[in-house]
Amino acid sequence: MESKAPPQSSPPTVLRRLINLDTAVSLKLYTFFQPILPFSLLKSLELSGDGRLFFPIILSILLTTTPVATLTSTTVTLTPTANLLLNLLIGSLLDLVLIGLIKHLIQRPRPVYNKNMFLSFAVDHWSFPSGHSSRVSFIATFCFLYSNHVREILLIKLLNLYAKSVAVEYFTVAVGLWAFVTSISRVLLGRHFVLDVVFGGILGVIEGMLVFRLLNYDNLSSWFIR
Length: 226
Prior knowledge:
By secondary structure, the chain is an all-alpha fold. It has helices spanning 14-33, 39-48, 51-65, 68-72, 80-106, 131-145, 147-158, 166-169, 171-188, 194-213, 217-224.
């Protein structure tokens, strides 16, 4: 009897090839930079983009500058400071929901070399997309679109910085650089693959534009409070 030829395996799909390439490139970057960049630097960048840091900061500034009665009132007009902070809070909550939903749906495992990572939520087990990347990209986009408000309200009014100082003039640029470096550090720290970070960055920019154009406090209040 003639032996049957073993069945040929089907060629990998375009998506599988892309994932394999992403995995290989991410490992190369991690392996190359791991002995060069100090862990403390990468860890500091990780902490700087942590949502557990931003939510308490936003809420504390908001509650310090605006009475609770004003925030809950439907007749009192909010100050520009409260309006700006509420928009920042709305975008941060939007980012949290979208990232959690996409992670739950995609469920891409994190890199096998990811070690010693604290998980805040169950979906943090999954890698795609990068929550840090989306968060810092949202903040950078928010600061760019609301640049005049950020300078006048947060930097000059709240922090009492001189209007012509370097910190005020180049604040938006500095935030953009911080967002870019923090996003890259997610790959170099071994937390994410490159595509996780790229998609997270794109998502963060979209969130910033959504808050600026549509899902801001003024629009939401006009829709739900009449």
